[in-house]
Amino acid sequence: MASLKSLAKDTAVYGLSSIVGRFLNYLLVPIYTTKISAASGGYGIVTNVYAYTALLMVLLTYGMETTFFRFANKEGEDAHRVYGTILTMVACTSLLFVAVVVAFISPISQAMGYADHPEYVWTMAVVVAMDAFQCIPFSYLRYKKRAIKFASLKMLFIVLNITLNVFFFVFYPQISGEATPVGYVFYINLGCTAFIMLCFYKELFVVRPMLDSQLIRRMLPYSLPILVLGIAGILNQTADKILFPYVYKGADVHGQLGIYGAASKIAMIMAMITQAFRYAYEPFVFGKSKDKDNRDTYAKAMKFFVIFTLLAFLCVMGYINIIRYLIGRDYWEGLRVVPIVMVAEIMMGIYFNLSFWYKLIDKTIWGAWFSGAGCAVLIAVNIIFVPRYGYIACAWAGVAGYATAMLSSYFVGQRYYPIAYPMRSMSLYVVVAAIFYVGIHAANNSTLPIWLSMAVNTIIILLYILLVVKKEFKQKK
To answer: What are the tens digits of pLDDT across the range 347-368?
Structure first.
C-alpha cells in the first residue's frame, strides 16, 4: 500500500503539470479555431504537421527513454554511464536528422504536400530534433524523482507558448491589420523549445559525452523492439491524420481534417490522464520489479486506472455542452467523434498498463507484434472507410486498432507473465459506465434546458462515484 501511495503522489505531481498544462494548451484551440476558419483549412495543416512530428519523435528517441529506466535500474550497470551514453546517442542522431531534412528540403516538402511552404517542414524538423534530445534529460529527472523540476519545465514551455500565441494571433492582427500566417504556430514552437533547452544546463553537464560501445550493444537489442512498438503505437494515434489528405476524396480535405483534429482535442483529456500515469508508473514498475508482491500491485494499479479513466469519460460527456466552447463553432460538427476517441484512449491506457509484462522479462519484441497488429487494423480501416464516411471512420479505426493490441497483449501476457487482474470488478465498472453514458447521451440530446440536462448528468456522475466509494473504500479503511 505504501508503494501505491508513492505512485499516487508522483502521479499527482506529474498529473498536475500534464493536466493543467494540457488544459492551458486548450486555450490555443479556441484561439486557432476562432482565428483560423474551418473552411480555410489552416487548422488542418497544423493537425497534419503535428501528426508527422509525433511519429518523428518516436523515431528519434528509438526507445531510449524506457531503455534508460531499465538499464539504470539494472544490477551491474552504472546509471551515470547509461545516461551519458544515451544522451550522446540521441544528440548525434537528432543532429543527423536535421542535416538530412535541410539537405533534401524540396523533395520532402513536395511529398508532404507543402511544396509552397518548405519552412513548415524545416522548422518542425528542428523542433522535433530538440524535443527528442530533451526527452533524455526529462527521463533523468524522473529517474532522480525530481518531479517538481520536471513539472516546472513542462509548465514553463506551455506558458511561453500560450503567451506568444495570444500575442501573435490575438493582438498582432489588431496592431498590424493583417491576419497572422499559419506558419507562426511552428515558429513559436521553435522559440519555446530552444528556450527550454537552456534550462537543462545542469542535467546536460552532470555527465560528460560518451559512447560506450559495449553498453550500446547491450541496449540496442532491448530498445529496437521498443522502437518498432513505438512506431506502431504512435501510428495508432497519428496515422489517421497523416493518411487523411491522401485517402479523403473531398476538395475540403484540410477543412475536414481540421474539424476532426479540433474535436479530438477535447477527447485528449483522456490522454492527459494516461500520460500522467505513465510518467509515474514507468520508473515505479522497474523499481518494484524485484519485490515479491509486485504482480498484486500491478493488478490493483490497473483497476484504479480503469476506474478513474471511466470517471473522466463520464465527466467529459456529462459536461460536453460547456466543454464544446473550447473550439470554435465552425468545428462543432466534429463533436460526435469525442466519445469514440475517448474510448480508444482508454483502451490505449489499458494496453500501456498491460505492456509491462514483456518489458520486465526483456521480451519487448512482443510489444512490436501487438502494436504492429493494431496499427495494421487501424490503417486498413482508414484506407477502406475514410473515402466513404470521412473523419468518423478515423475515430472508429482508433478503437479497432487499440482493441486489437489490448486484447492480444492480455491473452499472451497471461501465458508468459500471469497477473490476476480483477476482471469481474473492472467489467462491472465498464458496464455501469456504459449504462450511465446512455443516460448522459439521452439528457444531452433531450429538449431539456442545458442547465437541467447538466444537473441530470451530475447526478449520474455522482452515482458512479458513490458506487466506487462504496465498493473500493470500505469504512474500516
So the answer is: 988 887 887 777 777 776 787 7
Assigned C-alpha cell, 34? 476562432
Q: How far apart are CA 210 and CA 216, in angstroms?
A: 11
DSSP state of 422: -
Q: Give me 399's grid cell.
A: 478503437
Q: Tell me the average pLDDT of the chain.
A: 84
Residue in 247, 267, 284 with CA at minimum distance from that of residue 402: 267
Cell numbers that stand for 146 in this block: 525530481
The band of 95, judged by pLDDT with boundaries at 50, 70 and 90, is very high
Most confident of 203-207, 353-357, 404-408: 404-408
Q: What is the DSSP letter of 452?
A: H
Residue 209 to residues 79, 375, 429, Cα–Cα distance (Å): 14, 36, 50
DSSP 212-245: -HHHHHHHHHHHHHHHHHHHHHHHHHHHHHHHHH
The string of DSSP codes covering 166-213 is HIIIIIHHHHHSSPPPTTHHHHHHHHHHHHHHHTTHHHHHSS-----H
How far from 349 is each of 279, 306, 312, CA to CA, in Å?
12, 9, 13
How is residue 154 annotated by DSSP?
H
Q: What is the dihedral of CA 187, 192, 197, 201, to 10 degrees?
A: 140
CB of 283 closer than 8 Å to CB of 440: no
Q: What are the grid coordinates assigned to 276, written together?
A: 500522467
Residue that is written with C-alpha cell 478503437 in the block:
399
Please choose, from the candidates 263, 436, 239, 444, the residue with its C-alpha nearest in 3D space to the C-alpha of residue 336.
Answer: 263
Q: How many residues does the structure list for the chain?
A: 477
Do 288 and 356 contact (CB within 8 A), yes or no? no
pLDDT above 50: residue 476: no
Q: How far is CA 321 from each of CA 283, 311, 327, rounded to the nearest angstrom?
A: 38, 17, 12
280, 7 contact by CB (below 8 A) = yes
Closest CA to 327 of 380, 400, 264, 285: 264
The whole-number average pLDDT for the span 415-442 is 90
Residue-wise pLDDT tens digits, 239-267: 889 999 888 887 788 888 888 988 888 87
pLDDT at 223 over 60: yes
Burial class (CB in 10 A: 0-12, 13-18, 19+), 66: buried
* Of the candidates 145, 414, 399, 466, the residue with the CA atom closest to the CA atom of residue 299: 414
124 CB-contact burial (10 Å; exposed 0-12 / middle 13-18 / buried 19+): buried
